Each structure stands twice: as C-alpha cells, then as structure tokens.
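Form 7-S
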Amino acid sequence: MDSPAGPLAALIARAAELGGGAAPVERWNPPDCGAIPMEIKEDGTWHYNGSPITRERLVRLFASVLRREADGSFVLVTPVEKMTIAVADAPFVAVELVAEGEGASRSVTVRTNVGDVVRVDPDHPLRVAQDAAHDGFVPYVRVRGGLEARLTRAAALELAELAEAGSDAPDAPLGIWSGGTFFPVASAEAAR
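Output:
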C-alpha cells in the first residue's frame, strides 16, 4: 500500500529499508587481478562458480563496488584490487516503476533489485533496444556510471502505457517524458 506522501515516497522508503548505495569506485585505480568466476545473469541473479548467491546483503555489497570499464567490461573494484566478472545483459534489474505527472511534466522513477532509486532524466537516460526474439522492446535506464538496469517485463509494460507522441507531427516518434526530457522508444511507423 502506498504511503500518505504518495507512491514515489513509498518507493524510496522501500529502497532505504533494503540499504544500498555505491562506493566511490570511479576514484579507485587498483591493479587488475584478472577474472573471477562470477556472473550476473539476465534476470539479475548473481552467481559464483555456477551457484547462485542467495544472500541479499552480499549481492548488494558486490553491487556497491561494481564498475563498468571504458572497454565495456564489468569489474568489482576496491581500493586495492579489481576483478573482472561476466554480465549477461545489464547488471541490474528495474523491479519497480513509479510515474507522477503528465506529458512534459512527468517524472518516472525506478527502483532496482539492489536498492538503487533513480529518476529517468538526462543523467539517468532511458534507452530502448529491440528484442527480435520476442518482437518487442527492451527498456534500460542508466543507474550510475556505465551501469544500467533492464526493466522487468511488468515495469516495461507500465512504461509502454506512458508512451506518447513527441509532438503533433504525423511522423513524430513515440516516447516517454521524464525529468523534462523526451526519450524516444519507437518511431511512429513502428508503433503502427
């Protein structure tokens, strides 16, 4: 149930209950210790040596020291070492979405599976990839640095309900307004 302050406040409260937050990994430049047998699966589950890591606090700790390198690889980094891990798609999953307002005044906020809460805006842009296998779209939101969250199917459907034309032009793309920015999600032709 939503708090009296509204759905966004409830979303932030749930994230605060779970803890989270990122370490200042962008300031650390330790030696590379190579790859370790850790992987983040497409559904956001973390695995070590092929076995799932089920302790949520441990997953959140690892997520807090995750960084994407300039070459696109993902590393766990501390002040004294960094280790490369495998990521099947995006390292995080946006499990909850809250939209407040209408049109250009709308604000869309997501909560990730590791407790990050971000508002879609120019610093946390929305991008959409086409999913040929399922004939649909797959939305992602940048959480921090080069790290993104893939929206769950339920959150993606909620997002799709918010899509509107970017202008009155007949060939205007469909997209989502958030944080004063229009994020295209489909061309007018694709939407038909």
